[in-house]
Structure to design on (341 residues):
């Protein structure tokens, strides 16, 4: 509530909308303590400020009434994370227009994350590497993280028992990863859809998907277009690990790259299993070192896809690389609700 009052003062005393109050309740987020964590005293993501349950679509980034929340990674010339930069070094552009930053933070917090594991027949030669990659990632997690597993071949299903939607217990998660044989066709898009829906049930402020697959799909009911739209509407970051044999058919590394790029994550294509532990550690550090920037779009009338660009000019730092979401879908519903359609 202190944050809400502070931004209300910045907005000239104008009352905050319902959606903005909800987003401010979750926007104390800067992300992902895989190695560090800690219980938070802030309101839970699955309730609004009054304690009432929030619907699954609350993870959708809306324009107008809601703040756009960006995880931002800043990397130096050698790929190391650059932390401790002040807000004045950052400029955010929404569809090419500079935006006023309403919230700027860098901190650690527990994360809700879904492991999306390809168990199709095309991955059979790499099944052991897939399981080991998932285990390495789980060992880098923290007991206060909420983790779940989606296994998929021609169908997608949750790997944990029905009475255990999330867990931080590595043994339970390893069992979930190892469930089921490597056979059948590939429904990657359906698995991502299930993962995004399950993420909405998590209590932690920050959310991510980690997809381990070859990128192919020959069995989903969801289309690639629908999947990309869902990813663009979601506030979750997506990391992909592509395990692809040289002579393997039905692969699509381009999809894995796009899923990561559109959400501010990263795509990895290890040449051997020896690279997997380092990749898992890289993802862990990425989640932990990110900045969080939030703003209210100045152009609230335009529905549809909006591009995002974040520029960092930091004295004493040269060749900085900034990674964040490529953009987001602004819904007509949000503009209509505020009378700006």
């Amino acid at each position: 509530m202190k944050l809400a009052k502070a931004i209300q003062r910045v907005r000239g005393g104008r009352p905050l909308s319902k959606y903005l109050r909800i987003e401010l309740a979750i926007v104390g987020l800067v992300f992902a303590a895989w190695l560090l964590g800690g219980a938070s005293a802030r309101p839970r993501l699955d309730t609004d400020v009054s304690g009432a349950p929030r619907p699954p679509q609350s993870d959708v980034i809306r324009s107008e009434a809601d703040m756009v929340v960006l995880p931002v990674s800043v990397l130096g010339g050698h790929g190391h994370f650059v932390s401790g930069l002040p807000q004045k070094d950052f400029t955010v552009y929404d569809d090419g227009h500079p935006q006023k930053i309403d919230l700027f933070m860098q901190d650690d917090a527990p994360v809700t994350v879904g492991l999306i594991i390809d168990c199709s027949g095309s991955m059979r030669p790499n099944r052991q590497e897939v399981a080991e990659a998932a285990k390495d990632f789980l060992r880098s997690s923290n007991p206060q993280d909420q983790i779940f597993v989606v296994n998929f071949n021609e169908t997608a299903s949750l790997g944990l028992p029905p009475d255990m939607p999330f867990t931080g217990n590595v043994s339970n998660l390893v069992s979930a990863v190892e469930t089921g044989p490597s056979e059948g066709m590939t429904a990657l898009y359906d698995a991502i859809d299930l993962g995004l829906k399950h993420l909405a049930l998590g209590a932690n402020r920050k959310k991510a998907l980690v997809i381990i697959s070859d990128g192919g799909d020959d069995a989903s009911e969801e289309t690639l277009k629908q999947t990309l739209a869902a990813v663009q509407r979601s506030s979750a970051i997506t990391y992909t690990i592509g395990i692809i044999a040289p002579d393997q058919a039905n692969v699509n590394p381009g999809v894995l790259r796009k899923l990561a790029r559109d959400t501010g994550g990263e795509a990895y294509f290890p040449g051997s299993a020896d690279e997997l532990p380092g990749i898992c550690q890289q993802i862990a550090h990425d989640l932990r070192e990110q900045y969080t920037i939030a703003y209210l779009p100045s152009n609230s009338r335009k529905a549809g896809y909006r591009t995002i660009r974040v520029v960092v000019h930091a004295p004493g730092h040269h060749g900085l690389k900034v990674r964040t979401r490529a953009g987001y879908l602004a819904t007509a519903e949000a503009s209509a609700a505020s009378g700006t359609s």
